[in-house]
TrEMBL record:
InterPro entries in alphabetical order: ConA-like_dom_sf (IPR013320), DUF1349 (IPR009784)
SUPFAM superfamilies for the chain: Concanavalin A-like lectins/glucanases (SSF49899)
Transmembrane segments: none
Organism: Nocardioides aestuarii
Superkingdom field: Bacteria
Protein name: DUF1349 domain-containing protein
PANTHER family in alphabetical order: REGULATION OF ENOLASE PROTEIN 1
Gene3D superfamilies: 2.60.120.200
Length: 196
């Protein structure tokens, strides 16, 4: 059964500079330097992301929608799925080297990162969906009401609780405010490769 998650139901992994709700959703202002990453290539561990999380049940999906309005290197927003400090997935859109890119960071001890440019998505409504079925999280995204794109199929085989919700980070600057317009829990995708 699909349902909207109230913004007040979530708990922050790290408090943002500001978070305010109104009839249009939730506006989150990230702290400068906020990020989530573990070790790979850069050598550092960052766990200062602003993720608003509630329990994600097996055989269910999370959907988060936000307005894409980024201007500085590594501005990012989307969904965050957390098992523990060393096992988590963030997926959404990030401004990387001057271009909006759709991607994911999958972390199991160390992080791995994938990106695909989506410059035509700037200024539009982006929806990111993480569907947990069996031992995997299938991440899809779309802009406005266009078709879903497959972003990533990642291992998610957790014995303990899994938490999920919207997130944003601003690794390089102060003043990033992300307007999240919806947060929903739904049944998982029926299959990995939908028929035409």
């Amino acid at each position: 059964m699909s349902h909207t998650v109230p913004w007040t139901d979530g708990l922050w992994t790290n408090e943002p500079a500001d978070a305010a709700t109104d009839v249009d959703g939730l506006r989150v202002t990230a702290r400068k330097g906020s990020d989530a990453w573990r070790i790979t290539s850069y050598g550092f561990v960052h766990s200062s992301e602003h993720a608003l999380l509630t329990p994600l049940e097996p055989e269910s999906a999370i959907e988060v929608q936000f307005r894409l309005d980024f201007s500085e290197q590594f501005d990012q927003a989307g969904i965050f799925v957390r098992v523990d400090d060393e096992s988590w997935i963030k997926a959404g859109v990030e401004l990387s080297d001057g271009e909006e890119s759709l991607g994911a960071v999958v972390t199991r001890g160390t992080s791995d990162w994938s990106l695909s440019p989506v410059p035509s998505w700037a200024g539009r409504l982006v929806t990111v969906r993480g569907s947990w079925s069996g031992n995997a999280l299938t991440v899809r995204a779309r802009v406005d009401d266009e078709s879903w794109r497959l972003v990533r199929v990642a291992p998610l085989d957790a014995a303990g609780p899994v938490m999920a919700g919207p997130f944003c980070c601003a690794p390089t600057r102060a003043g990033l405010t992300v307007h999240f317009t919806s947060w929903r829990m739904t049944p998982p995708d029926a299959e990995l490769h939908p028929s035409a």
